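Below is how a single chain appears once it has passed through the pipeline. First comes the sequence as given, then the structure the pipeline wrote out for it. We keep one example in the README because the format questions we get most often are answered faster by looking than by reading.
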Amino acid sequence: MTAAATAEPTRRDFLYIATAAVGSVGAAAALSPLVSQMNPDASTIAAGAPVDVDLGSIQPGQIIQVFWRSKPIFIFNRTPKDIKLAQDADWQSLRDPQPDSARVKQGHEQWLVVIGICTHLGCIPLPHQGGFDGWFCPCHGSQYDSSGRIRQGPAPLNLQLPPYEFLSASRIRIGENSQA
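Resulting structure:
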């Protein structure tokens, strides 16, 4: 006589399945903290994260300051006079020659976005000061025009441009996800 195998689950089958399920849950619970500790912490993410800025409340002629990557960013809503002065300047004769059109986004000429750090020794220039209606660095006397170009003083370069893009007519994103 041969013994017929039963197709119904036995108590032993149930114990195998239950043990495997508990073991899988335990392994996942043990690996979860190991995997999550490899992610950067929130302060690291925030330090390099893009910054969105609403331009709607910035009046013509007003300069606001925001921070991106712990750097001050100046956003200047230039008046038609500021734009004309910047465009009419003899930019080829400047120390760091750059036309105004290379420092703003096409179609958004009234908005100038620059990193607010003097290129001489890293001081923070003051807005609407100096002889060119742009920025004046009180530390060593560098003067920038309304396009952020160095016009006078010891600074060797224009104020730097951060990467930014227009999300809409009244909103910009400053940061790495932007097109420079």
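The chain has two domains: 8-39, 45-174.

See the next section for the split statistics.
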